[in-house]
Request: fold
Amino acid sequence: MIIIDNLQKSFGRNEVLKGINLNIRDGVITAILGPNGSGKTTLIKSILGMVIPGDGSIEMNGKGIHNNWKYRNQIGYLPQIARFPENLKVKELIRMIKDIRRTEGKEDPLAEMFDLKQAMDKPLRHLSGGTRQKVNILLAFMFESPNYILDEPTAGLDPLSLIRFKELLIAEKKNGKAILLTTHIVSLVEELADDVIFLLEGNIFFSGSVEELKSKYGGLKLEHSIANILSGQHV
Amino acid sequence: MHIDSKCELLGKVQGFLLLLLFCFQFAHASDTIQVCKNCKYTTITSAIGAAKNGDFVMVSNGEYSEGKILIGKQLTLWGENFPVIEGNGQSDVFFVDADSVVVSGFEIRNTGISYIYDLAGIKINGHSHCRIENNRLYNTFFGIYLKHANECIVKNNEIIGQATSEASSGNAIHLWYSKNAEISGNSCKGHRDGIYFEFVEHSHITGNLSEGNLRYGLHFMFSNDDRYVNNTFRNNGAGVAVMFSRVIIMQDNLFEKNWGPSSYGLLLKDILDGEITGNRFNENTIGIFADGSNRIKITGNEFRQNGWALKILGSCMDNTISGNNFISNTFDLITNTSTNYNRYEGNFWSEYTGYDLNKDGIGDIPYKPVKLFSMIVSNLPVSIILLRSSFVDLINFAEKITPSLTPPSLADPSPLMKMILK
Amino acid sequence: MRTFYPASMFKILKYSLFDLTRSRWTYGYFLFYLIFTFGLLYFSNDVSKAIISMMNIILILNPLIATLFGALYFYGSKEFAELLLALPLKRSSIFMGKYLGLSLSLSLSYLLGTGIPFLFYEIQATGQAWNFLLLTVAGLFLTFIFTGLSFLVSIRFENTIKGFGISIFIWLFFAIIYDGIFLLTLLIFEQYPLDKYALIMTLFNPIDLSRVLIMLKLDISALMGYTGAVFNKFLGTGLGMIVAFGSLVIWIVVPVFVFIRFAKKKDF
Reply:
């Protein structure tokens, strides 16, 4: 459960977030949509504490995150571009993240699920983009975090892994986790998201279910609704 | 001549000689006069008064304070277990006014300081063949003072002063207008100069230690044909100064740790025809500083870890610097002229970075011992703080390629690849 | 106030070190010093001269390598830093750990690279051990100082090229330009008393400071003798040594402190 209240952030003169109010509920998959530069990544980074908000507050499971770092124990994060220390082997990386988080993880079933057993002994610099992304997924989900933040999680995944990933996401949702994801793949949103947040120029342009979005902005398919919004035909 | 008469004549001569010898011995039969607290003579002065030429005056251990002790006869003064002779602070302690006087085995203290008189522990004035041996002189203004005294021996004395300023201190061993002196095995500390020679000729200084003196360890003025060998000069204002003198032989001495803004191991000022061989110069601010000095041979010496091994001014000509070892000196050479009238050859320079392709032990490119930065530092001492910085290496390198300030003709054309071993 | 959380900092330190021990740069640096020092000790007939040559190299190379590796490592591990930032770690722990990780790994390469040959030759070179030790300590200080400076520049400038450029300029400035200006001002103001000025100028350049500290041991007669008063009375004493080493410590602490402050406020 993440509660965001009046979140504002500027980079220099550029106002990126202009007062965002948002609840990310447990047991729900929330998708953030929006064109490039609409503030999606900044929003995510603010939740993670990587960007320090200019104003407003963020609460996670009832506690403010400002000047706090322990709350990140409750987040499984999947970054958009995953770059790891290139000289480490995959299993060393897993061991390291476990060591840093000081918790045991359930990496084995995940490795099984994504067919990573053979990659375990390889140094990260020898992995393909898709395999890296699978490692990325494994690292995000191996801890029983109550919140997941996923930034373009399906980039580079092969079809089988994609199916597995969707299954994983639905399972975690049923476990009552709060899941926040950004993606440009509309079908994924349509398929998985319960709540959709549409960001436009630093504001929440729309917040509601996929169905509500479709009915409000027309189009049988979600991508048409989005296209309508972006081309300004929604009035 | 008949053989018998010849024998007879020989016998007579023999008999006469024996008689002569007997008479001589009788006339000069030397007595020993004892001086002690309970003796007939309780003062040295009274014993000298009672003595005749050739007598021994034996002085027992104890403390004697008699003011100026005048030795006006040819006597041997012999101290037993170093009797202490306390000065009165206003005059010399022993004043020798006779030839062939021996003073040995005394501990002489506190002459006092005078700005008018050269007060001395032992002073010899105008007499020859004295022998000053095995004494200890503590806190004397001048220690042993020879004036117009020829053929004297000053040997194995220990002379320790407490000099604090040059103006209010004298020299440990001071010779003025003397010839054929032998100064050996003495230890001179805490004076203005350790050993001072003015108008002294044909004299030898051997195996002395001169340490911690305010001005010079050894100082020559207007003295010719002297030699000093095997001495150690350490931690003085400057090690040795040779000024206005000719034909001084300097051999096998050690010049060490003579530090200071204007300090050096050896100063040569207006001298001619000296020889400097086999000496070691260690850790001096300047090893040898030569000004107005000509026809000097500097060979077979070792210069190690000096600030400057040599400082040779433009006023020096026809000197030869060969066969020396220059090891780990901050700078090897400094000069103030762009022309060079001295010869440098066949030295070992540890800074040399050349090569020896024909393997004859001699470097194939000449060595230039004067660095640009060395000249900067001698004009602006504070810039020494930039020594060995990359910037300084850079300007030295630039100067080496296109010399503009360093003398282009000053080089050792035959630098050795290996250190000269003795 | 606890500025960082030691346990997690040591974890980051441990993994940074672990990562760097796999880097061929680390081995290259180590091998360079190993070959260089062996060569120097082998070919030079005088150990004190070898130490002076080593000093010349160390005073240039340690800051340069720390500067280059600092920028290279900082920019190169930026995404990894972002991964760490999303983990339950204090920012100060992450960046302190990275800083110490790189400094220590460079120090280790340098220490082993020069130390092994010296220990090997030490039997013939007794008497130079203290000089060598001083040289080693100065080299370590420079590694820590210039790693800190280049991290500071790197976190301040997002643009890699700019960051590299400024880091290298800082190195060039302290290694050469500073001394040129220093000497120029000495020559210009020749007629004024410059002892204190020279001392203060030295304290403000860590490379100069290290060099002077080593030279006080190596070229003691020249430095102590010729320049009379201030150097003599100041740098030769216990107090002088404390001030000199204190300055070197400040040269580490201040850039790292500012670096950590930037790190805490920065948006990634």
The interface with chain A takes residues 8, 11-12, 15, 18-19, 22-23, 77-80, 82-91, 265, 267-268 of chain C (CB under 8 Å). Residues 91-122 of chain C form the longest helix (32 residues). Chain C has a mean pLDDT of 85. Residues 145 and 249 of chain C are 8 Å apart (CA to CA).
